Amino acid sequence: MEKYLKYVPAFVFGILFLLVYKFGIAGLVSNELSYKMTGVQPRYVDKFRYTPVYVADRITGPQYSAPGAEYFKKLNGMKENIEKIFPSDTVSEIIVIYIADLGNYPITATVRKSKVEFVDGIVANTIPTAIFKVKKADIDGLEKMVSDGKVDTQEKIRIADVIAGPMIERMYRLSRLYKVEHLANFGFDDFMQLEIQGGEGIDRAGTPVELKYSIVNVDGQWMVTKGFTGDPDVRFSLTMDQTLSLYTNMVINLENSKDKIEALKYSKEGFGILKDNISYVRDDHR
What we know:
By secondary structure, this protein is of the alpha+beta class. It is built from eight helices and eleven strands.
């Protein structure tokens, strides 16, 4: 058995994404086979199971309220400036925004090729790619941020505090991720943590920013929670620029790639960012 196990690419620490196409490496052994033959619980995730984003009040009563409508108009009024934040080749997104201090008043944002459209309420028969939970102060602050069409470093950190968690989860919802068999061959840990540097000493709407996330796979399903919990297999620490590059390569570029060669190129770049920024590996995984 050992002569086969040495081919398992344990150096690949998967997080947020994966190579969509298999390498032609002979002799790789699946986690299931390893578990049955050795009785040792396999380390790496072997299969992803897709679950849609849950929208709790998709079909509940009237959504309109005067304060909520006011914030919908506010978002709609800054649409052109918000569009400047998105790359021109971004993938399509359907984002539900809940305003917590307005009774979780919902607004839907549709992003297509950097063009943003807002809808007052939840669009029927649509499945969102992400959910942002915000406060009125976040939208007021966003209005100030984008008024000059520029976003400085601290403003990026505050925006990241709102959207980073949902966007990490978004990376696992690419349709290509669920078409590859025997993912264990690529070394995707089932318990990871990710830190985005630079949030120290910055607050958002009176609450300290915390850009730390725990990513856990349970029965093939990915869950992302804010904060560090437990002792992970591996932890990554990235700058804001590295995080944006990671997302660009592994979501925007990979989703828009024309062929396998291009997809492989972007995947390697993404994996390279992670490999170069490992800040912790649990002792029994070294």
